[in-house]
Write a structure and sequence with these properties.
about 525 residues, eight-stranded antiparallel beta sheet, seven-stranded antiparallel beta sheet, disordered C terminus
């Protein structure tokens, strides 16, 4: 049994008014992979490289020097390749040559499924691999520890020779550690202390993976589970997030990691508006969610990580263990995803959470060209003036293309729970925003007339809306793209009343006294 969760924000814009937006993001051709291991490494088990693409013939090259693997395979739409668990590190604070390099001839989505050994369900996990074009040189580690005997950990994969990595462990007051690496080298570090908030920086691009050998969220449940995720570099952090619940579990945990000093996060929990301050890079705030989604906004870029609760947290549903997944920012949403619901996990209920900001998005969502048939659950939530919907759909094991036929962007997260502690989660994909935002574009428009025109902004621009009074006393609005400084476009001789800039598609639909890009902007005139 498989479900799909849809989060939608209500807007006055219809889907037919939005042009298609494209950006490759995590859909790529060149990947560097690292494999983290659970507390009990089952040498007879395997990790699986799972590739999904459009239904066309493609070639994949897989190079694993440590295991002597250098193979080239052809496939159509979907391909899986097993990597023996011998690739997993066993020694702390050590450099090995255990990287995995995957290249393809066309763009693909690549997911790792770990340790699918039928005798130990708690070692199963999945995570999306980020292509080389998206990785960078600065990261903040996300892990978890709750009274476990097992270790928090992270793994670094070098993509070039003469790579120098500086690591500042959050649990120690000593100077940063320095590690020298070459192409395809891997560096592993673990500790019984929670390594979350540790900072990793390098002189060349690296891929960073983090997790935990076996832990439980939010407290020390009897049943612990392996967790792993590839981290996004700090340069791709965002400011606005919709965090889905993880039904059928009745709770979930979110950690928000700050990347800059004095970052303020805002969210609503149980009808209360909450604000918290992250004073230094690497500091995080933990939120225990319920069975409703969260809308979280940060004044500066942050990393958002979602954790499912442990097996015994919910007395009504004793299924699945704790797992972790990166949550994409709203500006990182795409309009098309290719993914696979794998039979590897056995008797597991699978789910996909979809996050979006448009009223009619559900009408034009298609999975393998068809509408969703079975709606399991819906929620309507409001955060200040934004309203979004959460819906859950059932699907089945298979290979999928998930898209919005009119190009509206939405986020997507896949996860699953089963008996005997089975659980996994991974984001389906995200984009970097290199194509620029889609913004409303109307000049001198009255509040009584809807804006039905959109435009594609240049990379780095934001969406702008201004309210002003003409010298005849008319109240009018301008909506357009703007530079990051939120430069005014109002006419000479007019009196400005309100100015608002934001960094998400179609976010300039109302004028607010608070500016998402520059919080200092306030009402004038």
């Amino acid at each position: 049994m498989i479900y799909l969760v849809v989060l939608v924000s209500l807007s006055t814009i219809t889907s037919s008014e939005i042009s298609s937006a494209s950006s490759h993001g995590t859909f790529g051709r060149d990947f560097f992979v690292g494999i983290l291991g659970p507390w009990q490494i089952i040498r007879s088990g395997n990790a699986t490289l799972q590739i999904t693409s459009e239904n066309t013939t493609d070639t994949v090259n897989i190079h694993v020097p440590y295991l002597g693997i250098n193979t080239r395979r052809r496939f159509v739409g979907h391909f899986e390749f097993s990597i023996p668990n011998l690739i997993i590190h066993g020694t702390n604070n050590t450099v090995y040559h255990r990287g995995i390099h995957v290249t393809t001839d066309i763009d693909v989505s690549l997911v790792v499924i770990t340790s699918h050994n039928s005798d130990w369900n708690e070692a199963r996990e999945s995570y999306l691999i980020i292509p080389k074009s998206m990785i960078s040189s600065s990261y903040i580690i996300s892990s978890y520890t709750s009274g476990s005997f097992w270790n928090s950990n992270f793994l670094i994969v070098a993509t070039e020779n003469e790579t120098v990595v500086n690591i500042t462990i959050n649990t120690e007051s000593s100077l940063p550690m320095t590690v020298s690496m070459n192409n395809m080298d891997t560096y592993f570090y673990d500790s019984q202390k929670d390594l979350s908030g540790s900072i990793v920086k390098s002189n060349k691009p690296i891929a960073v993976f983090s997790g935990h050998e076996a832990t439980a969220v939010p407290y020390d449940c009897y049943d612990k589970h392996f967790m792993a995720e590839q981290l996004l570099p700090i340069s791709t952090f965002g400011r606005e997030f919709i965090v889905p619940p993880m039904p059928p579990k009745s709770g979930y945990v979110v950690r928000v990691y700050g990347s800059e000093q004095n970052t303020t996060i805002s969210y609503t929990l149980t009808l209360r508006n909450e604000k918290r301050q992250l004073r230094i890079p690497g500091q995080f705030h933990e939120i225990l969610g319920e069975d409703k989604p969260l809308k979280i906004y940060a004044s500066k870029p942050v990393q958002m990580v979602l954790y499912s609760t442990c097996y015994s947290f919910d007395s009504a549903y004793h299924i699945g263990g704790s797992t972790m997944a990166i949550i994409p920012a709203t500006q990182q949403y795409a309009n098309t995803y290719f993914f696979t619901v794998s039979p590897i996990f056995g008797n597991t209920d699978h789910y996909v959470a979809i996050m979006a900001k448009y009223r009619n998005i559900e009408d034009d969502l298609r999975i393998n060209g068809k509408r969703f048939q079975e709606n399991v659950q819906s929620n309507v939530m409001t955060f200040y003036k934004d309203t979004y919907i959460v819906s859950i759909y059932k699907i089945h094991v298979g290979v999928y293309k998930l898209e919005h036929v009119n190009g509206l962007r939405f986020g997507a997260l896949q996860y699953g729970f089963g008996g005997n502690g089975k659980s996994y989660s991974n984001v389906l994909g995200l984009v970097t925003g290199a194509d620029g935002l889609t913004c409303l574009q109307c000049n001198g428009i009255s509040i009584t007339k809807p804006c039905n025109r959109v435009t594609k902004c240049a990379p780095g621009q934001v969406c702008l809306i201004e309210k002003f009074i003409t010298h005849y006393g008319q109240i009018l609005y301008n909506m357009d793209c703007s530079d990051a400084k939120c430069t005014s476009t109002s006419r000479p001789g007019s009196t400005p009343v309100c100015q608002y800039c934001c960094d998400n598609d179609l976010c300039n639909s109302y004028c607010n006294v608070t500016n998402h890009v520059q919080p200092e902007v306030t009402v004038v005139g």
